[in-house]
From TrEMBL:
It comes from the Bacteria. SUPFAM superfamilies: UDP-Glycosyltransferase/glycogen phosphorylase. InterPro entries: UDP_GlcNAc_Epimerase_2_dom. Gene3D superfamilies: Glycogen Phosphorylase B. It comes from Virgibacillus byunsanensis. Keywords: Isomerase. Belongs to the UDP-N-acetylglucosamine 2-epimerase family. Residues 6-100 form the UDP-N-acetylglucosamine 2-epimerase domain. This is UDP-N-acetylglucosamine 2-epimerase.
């Protein structure tokens, strides 16, 4: 389905893997999907995460995470919220709960 979408839409590109350096570089924008990376790595970059669905529901969640259902309207509202100045400011001040845990476990 992804390959078909890319073939039909000139603006879309699909990669099997972009590697860690390119992925971390891409994190300067936003994380959208249902990847644990939006919970574990993204908060350290002070960017919004839009979590689609409930696959990650058991993970600790930073204030920079917006949860939405896998429904077009919900995803659109989540993206609109993530792009607001207020939410961007909130994401910029977020504390990564996984970094806090790691720091406390190391003591």
């Amino acid at each position: 389905m992804i390959d078909s979408f890319v073939k039909e839409n000139d603006y879309a590109v699909a990669f099997t893997s972009i590697g860690i350096n390119r992925y971390l570089s891409a994190l300067r924008y936003c994380v959208i999907g249902n990847s644990s990376s939006g919970f574990v790595e993204a908060p350290s970059f002070c960017i919004p995460t839009i979590n689609i669905g409930d696959r990650q529901k058991r993970l600790l969640q930073a204030e920079s995470v917006i949860n939405c259902e896998p429904i077009k309207e919900d995803m659109g509202q989540a993206i609109a919220l993530a792009l607001t100045e207020e939410f961007m400011s909130k994401a910029g001040k977020t504390v990564n709960p996984y970094m806090v845990m790691e720091t406390h476990q190391g003591k």
